[in-house]
Amino acid sequence: MLNLKKTAVAVLALGSSAVFAGTMGPVCTPGSVTVPCERMAWDFGVQALYLQPVVDHYAGYYLDPIGGRHYNEVEPDWDWGFKLEASYHFGTGNDLNVNWYHFKSDDNRSSYLVYSPEIIGTPSTLPVPAGNYPVGVVAEPSWDAVNVELGQHVDFGEFKDIRFHGGVQFTRIKHEMGIAAFATSVSPFPAAAAAGYTKFDGFGPRIGADMMFNLGNGLQIYGKGASALLIGESKFRDAVTTLGTFSGAGYGERDALVPELEAKLGVAYTYAMPQGDVTLDVGYMWINYFNAQHTALTTNDFALHGPFAGLKWVGNV
C-alpha cells in the first residue's frame, strides 16, 4: 500500500513538472463588438450596371426529324442599367436606405435553323410543311427592383464591419419575345410568327448583410448578400400568325411565390473631405429570381450578372 502511494505521488509530480515546463503559450483575448458613435447624416449614391440577363424561355426549343427536343441558346446581350440610392443615418449606426435598380436589354437578336415549324410552348402547331426553316428570335428582358432597408452597422474589432439590414422589396420583371420562321433564307416575310411576353410583379420581405474588411487608408474589400421572398402575379400572353393569318393565342396568369438570392463582391475606396466622405465602389453582382416566369408549358428563372461601378457621398446633418 505504501509503495502504491509513493508511485502515485511520483506520477503527479512528473505530470505537474511537464505542465509548468517551458514558456506560456499565446493567450486569446476576445475582440470587442461595438456600434459607431451617435451620428446624423445623409448619403446619395449612383451606380452604373453592365449586366447580362440569363433566361431559359421556350423560344429556343424545337423538334428534330425524330422528335428529339433540342435547345438553341437564345442569349440576350450585355446592356447598361443603373442603381440610385439615398440613406438617412441616425442613432448609433442605424440607417434607413431606399434604392432602385433599373435594367432593360433591347434588340437582342439571334437565329438558327429549325426542322418543322413547331416551336415548343406556342399555343398551336404551325401548319407549314416539314423542313429546315430559318428562325429569328428577338428578346427584350427588363427588370426593376425597389428596396427599402433598415440597417444596423456593427464593428467587429479594428478591421471587420458588418451592416445587417431588413426590409421589403418590390420587383417587376418583364420579358418580351418575338419569333419568326421563314420559308427560305431570302424570304422578306415570315411564313409563321409568334409574339408575346411574360411578366411578374411581386412584393415581400428582404434581409441581408454587408460584410466589409478594412485594409487601411480608406480602402476596403467586401462581400454582400441578401435574400427576398416575393408574392405576386405571374402572367404570360402570346399569339401566332401563319402566312399572315391569325392562328391562335394563349394567355394565363397565376399567383406565384418567388424566392430571390443576390450576392456582390467588390472593392471600395473612401476619401474624406470637410464637406463629407466620397466613396468609389467597383464590383461584380449576381441576382436570381426562382420560377418568376411561366408560359403554357414551362416555369423559368430570371437571372442577371455583371460588373458595376459607382459613387456615394455622405454628409453630416
TrEMBL record:
<keyword id="KW-0732">Signal</keyword>
<feature type="signal peptide">
    <location>
        <begin position="1"/>
        <end position="21"/>
    </location>
</feature>
<dbReference type="InterPro" id="IPR007825">
    <property type="entry name" value="Major_OMP_Legionella"/>
</dbReference>
<dbReference type="Pfam" id="PF05150">
    <property type="entry name" value="Legionella_OMP"/>
</dbReference>
<protein>
    <submittedName>
        <fullName>Major outer membrane protein</fullName>
    </submittedName>
</protein>
